[in-house]
Each structure stands twice: as C-alpha cells, then as structure tokens.
Amino acid sequence: MIPVVTPEEMGAVDAAAPEPTEVLVGRAGAATARAALDLLGGAYGRRVVVVAGKGNNGADGRAAADRLRRRGVRLEVLDAADLPDHLPAADLLVDAAYGTGFRGDWTPPAAPEGAAVLAVDVPSGVDGLTGEAHGRPWAADRTVTFAALKPGLLLGDGPSLAGTVEVADIGLDVSGARAHVVEGADVARWLPDRPRDAHKWRAACWVVAGSPGMTGAAHLAAAGAQRAGAGYVRLSTPGLAEDPGAPTEVVGVELPAEGWADRVLDGVDRIVAVAVGPGLGTGDAAAAGVRALVGAADRPPVVVDGDGLTALADDVDGDLTTARARPGHGPATGPTVVLTPHDGEMARLGGEPGAPDRLAAVRDLAARRGAVVLSKGSPTVVADPDGRVVLVTAGDARLATAGTGDVLTGALAALLAQGLAPFEAAAAAAHLHGRAGALAWRRGLVAGDVAAHLPAALTELPED
Ligand SMILES: NC(=O)C1=CN([C@@H]2O[C@H](COP(=O)(O)OP(=O)(O)OC[C@H]3O[C@@H](n4cnc5c(N)ncnc54)[C@H](OP(=O)(O)O)[C@@H]3O)[C@@H](O)[C@H]2O)[C@@H](O)CC1
Ligand SMILES: [K+]
C-alpha cells in the first residue's frame, strides 16, 4: 500500500524528523533533478525554467536547479512572486512555486510552448488536502511528491493536473499514515490460498436483492459474487417464486415478500456472507426486512447496498449496523457490516458527500455507523470505524454505467465469504472491480462485462 498523508499530518511527520529541513530539501531537490533528467532525456544544453516560491517548495526547486546546472543544463530560476508575462522558451518547466503551504490563488503565465512540466510535491495552486485547483495551475506531465502521496493528488482536480505521480523517499518516517492507496500486491496478500479441501460451501454467500419484475440488479450482484470467487451463490428475490433469468449456476431460494429476514436468518447455517439491497425496492416490507436482518445478533457479515442503504437511513448511531455477527461467522472483533453508498446514498446516511476533506468525511461516517463504509467515486474511498482509510484508484469513468454497483456488491460478498475482514474485503472488491472494468473494452462496456472480467482481474494479481 502506498501511504497517503495530509499536509497537516505531513507537518507533524516533518516536525518529528531527526534531520534538519535543509537535509530533507537537499534530498527533495535531488529527486526532482532525477525526474527532470528523465523527462529531458539528457542534460547538456537542455533548457530548464524553474519557478520557485519563497517557501520550502521553492527551496526544493532551487536545490534541483543547482544539481541540474552542474550537469550542464541551461537554467533560469524565476521568482514565483515576480514572473514576466511570458516565460522564456524551455524544454522543461519545473513548477516549484508552492507546495503543501499554498493558500489563495495561483494564475501564472502560460507554460513555455512545447515544454514538459514537472511539478514539485503538488502542482502549485492545487490544494494538497482536497485536490481543488485555485486559479489556473499548470497541468504537469509528472509530479514528484515526497515521502507519501497527498490526498490532493488523488482527489478533485488533482489527478488531471498532476500527471504521472512518483513518490520519492526523502528519509521521513510515514509508517503512521492512516490512509493508503491499494495495490494489486495488497489484494493478493489478503486473498486466502484456495485450500486443497476446497468445497463449495467454503465461500458460500446469499444475495437478497431485486423485486418482482425488477430482477436485473439481483442477477448482476449474483454474477459479481460468482466471478469474484464465491464457491456457492444463493439468490433470493423476496416475493418472487420463479426467476428463469438468473445466472445458471446460482441456486434460487424462494422468500416471502414480507417477513423474509427471519427466513434468511434460519437458513444461513452454511452461508458465510450476505449481500442485501440492490433493487430490493423501498417499500415497507423491504425496509423492515433489511433492518431485521442487519440488526440481528446472529447473522453472518453483510454488505448493504442500494435500497438497503435507504432502509438504514434512520439508524444514525449505528444501532443496527454494530450488531455482532454470531461466533464463528466473520471476524471476532471489529465491524461486520459494509455499507457501499454512492454520493446520494451517502447523504441519506447522514454523511457529507462533497466535503472538502473527503477522507475525513468517509472516516466519520464509518465511525458513527460502526461499519465499514465504501464511498463510490473516483477514487473510491473505504474507511473502517477504527480510522483506517484506503483509496482505490483502479477504476475509471467506464465504471459509471448502470448496474456496475450491483456487481461490486456481489463481489464484496464473495470476498467476505472467502474470509477477508470487511475492510480488506471492501478494498479488494473495489480494486478488482476497477481492474475488471479496465481490462474489459474501452467503449460500450455494460455491467455484466465487469462481472465477466473479474476472473481476469483476479488472475493478473501478482503472486503473493
Ligand atoms: N513536509 C516535509 O517534511 C518536507 C517538505 N518539503 C517541501 O516543502 C513544501 C512545503 O513547504 P512550506 O510549508 O514552506 O510551504 P510552500 O508550499 O513552500 O508555500 C508556503 C510559502 O508560500 C507562500 N504562499 C503560499 N501561497 C501563496 C500564494 N498564493 N501567493 C503567494 N505566496 C504564497 C507562503 O507565504 P505566507 O503564507 O507565509 O505569506 C509561504 O511563504 C512541500 O510541499 C515540499 O515541497 C521538502 O522540502 C522537505 C520536507
Ligand atoms: K509545486
């Protein structure tokens, strides 16, 4: 996992560093110079303009300039506070105006025509916490950031202005980071090896979703569970007797339209995880069923999505979502519920979509609900009530198509059923789901394709 540290947290890391700032600035300058040389494809005779501010970000840029000059690069260092209307011609512009200490607005003259842009730590003008661009920052081809990623490189305008982001180690200890970006190697580590005596019940899950006449979401959730490695998928749509459209290998079990939660709880003996909510409808019976199931003391771990989340809207303090899973089912401690809201559902749950500090907003909701919260978006953010946060950058705009959320819900249930703890299951599901979308077609993608590509996403994981 790649650590993500807010500007404020970075200040504390910096204050705790045993080395003086000049030493850190020297290393930051060296890393910047290396990235510059890489972008330039050489040194001698290349023209580089460094725009440097008066803080440490500017100091990093000046330190890089010294190194580059010694390599024969033709350098001009310009003061960010006193820029000409037109910047001199250059092969590379190094943006070291402002870093995490930026405030206000930054509307510099245009970058020299044809010059590559290298941002130091964060593109100047981009808020290191929120990713919001203030003014008209230069769009970088590459950003070299120090010690850890900053949220502002991953959120808001950050990703489109930062270009390719590289984290340079400058000797700071970021082991206390509370947020991380998930990588394939993490997911590989979390997934259990398939045991030799694997039998279908080992990773059995039950999808309770859909409503009579509206079975698409249920089918997609079931397919997501199948393709993310569930050994057995049971599917029930309350009030629906026959479901000829369900995926072939799914085992249909009939549930009454009302009072179905008791029937589920009676039948979960060998079921390791339950998914509830997609397409269930917002009628009273559906909502009562969700509440009874989620609030039951003896249920397996459960992932709640879609209409299931609406049913939990009033459970503000998490009385239902903190119900303990029964012994032997799910983790002995920690949360046993995963909530997977998009922004609208997040607001319904009392969360704050669009909050400037998105990581804190998701973390707060998880703490209040006593549940893992997976906030869908770009990136997807997963928080545990204990304060841990991961960002999943694997997905892209292609996933913003109807039904992909249902696939994610099913995949998440399958990972819970394979024994992952809720936080890791949510992070892994979001990663695999994002990769499945990326591995599928560039255009014309439908949700079923995402499910169909989950095995490819699992297969491409590095060997643990
Ligand atoms: N963390 C670490 O451990 C390490 C961090 N390092 C580096 O330090 C960077 C953070 O440095 P920093 O704190 O000095 O802040 P920085 O971004 O240079 O800006 C603050 C200065 O700019 C000014 N200023 C701001 N906005 C302005 C505006 N719109 N227009 C005009 N002026 C404006 C502001 O002025 P003031 O508010 O004081 O008036 C202040 O003087 C970080 O991003 C990384 O690159 C590494 O060197 C090594 C280890
Ligand atoms: K910068």
UniProtKB/TrEMBL annotation:
Catalyzed reactions per annotation: (6S)-NADHX + ADP = AMP + phosphate + NADH + H(+); (6S)-NADPHX + ADP = AMP + phosphate + NADPH + H(+); (6R)-NADHX = (6S)-NADHX; (6R)-NADPHX = (6S)-NADPHX
Sequence ranges assigned to domain YjeF C-terminal in this UniProt record: 183-461
InterPro entries named among the record's database cross-references: Carbohydrate_kinase_pred_CS, CARKD, Nnr, Ribokinase-like, YjeF_N_dom, YjeF_N_dom_sf
Source organism (scientific name): Iamia majanohamensis
Gene: nnrD
Entry binding sites for AMP: 376-380, 405
Gene Ontology MF, one: NAD(P)HX epimerase activity
Listed name of the protein: ADP-dependent (S)-NAD(P)H-hydrate dehydratase
Cofactor: Mg(2+); K(+)
Cofactor comment text: Binds 1 potassium ion per subunit.
